[in-house]
Design goal:
The chain contains 1 helix and 24 strands. The chain has a 7-stranded mixed β-sheet with strand order 12-16-9-8-18-21-20, with no helix packed on it. A 4-stranded antiparallel β-sheet has the order 11-15-14-13, with no helix packed on it. The chain has a 3-stranded mixed β-sheet with strand order 1-24-6, with no helix packed on it.
């Protein structure tokens, strides 16, 4: 249990965050505190940790084109891996505290280090390594990369490789940035998707992928538009929400119940 107390003089939203066994936890639902409702009771489930890797698989990998900078001949890609753990503890990695290694597409030059509120990423010899803890059940690992492309041809061959057995792999590219997406290897065209104010061209792998297997698509007609700021663009609004919400501290009264799974 944890509690903080003080006078509540105005209505404010807060995000609850706690830590157990060195692993941070964040309640995704904001808490509204007001003078007429100065208290709230909230439960967060936590787990013990392990450095022994459990059985892991990926339910779905989605790679999306977020932006193109023709001046530097770089693409900004977002990769989302929904990792499923069969264990009953949080996997925190071995001695190096690395939990997942993601093969990078060709021409990768940089990775966004701040991967989530509980993990960081680094680029090492063609592989993205992450420290994000993998919880029992599903954990979504989101990685943002910069890759170099052929600016004269306006094309890029995007290879997506499975780091673990993966049930489904998909590539999405908005029509506003990419003129066409063409299957090259182990890929097929799927139905377009309308989301986030964009029409997304979709290709998917023709079958589930074993560890190390990949799909390749050719991105053509790259427009050379500067990548959007992930904290101000619509696609990044959710990840930026924490920046505009208060951090729970003195000035509120919250009873936080931590439940050990």
């Amino acid at each position: 249990y944890g509690d903080w107390s003080s006078d509540v003089c105005s209505s404010d939203l807060y995000l609850l965050r706690t830590e157990y066994a060195g692993v941070p936890y964040l309640d995704p639902a904001p808490v509204l505190l007001a003078p007429e409702a100065p208290a709230v009771d909230r439960t967060i489930t936590v787990w013990e940790t392990t450095d022994r890797r459990p059985a892991l698989r990926i339910a779905r990998t989605t790679v999306s084109v977020e932006g193109i900078d023709g001046a530097t001949a770089r693409l900004q890609l977002r990769r989302e891996d929904v990792v499923e753990s069969a264990g009953d503890r949080v996997y925190i990695g071995g001695a190096d505290r690395r939990t997942l290694r993601l093969p990078t597409p060709d021409g990768a030059v940089a990775v966004d280090a701040q991967q989530s509120f509980d993990g960081t990423a680094d680029l090492e010899q063609g592989v993205v390594v992450t420290t994000q803890p993998l919880r029992p059940g599903q954990t979504t690992v989101t990685t943002r990369l910069l890759v170099e492309y052929d600016v004269r041809a306006g094309e890029y061959a995007l290879r997506v490789t499975a780091p673990l057995p993966t049930a489904a792999v998909e590539v999405r590219a908005p029509l506003s940035l990419v003129g066409g997406v063409h299957p090259v290897a182990n890929a097929e065209i799927a139905k377009p998707v309308d989301a986030e104010g964009e029409r997304w061209q979709v290709t998917r792998r023709t079958s589930a992928a074993a560890e190390g297997e990949s799909m390749v698509v050719q991105l053509r007609g790259l427009s050379g538009v500067q990548a959007a700021n992930p904290l101000t663009s619509q696609r990044g609004a959710a990840s930026g929400a924490a920046a505009v919400l208060g951090v729970l501290a003195l000035g509120a009264f919250v009873m936080l119940r931590v439940r050990l799974a």
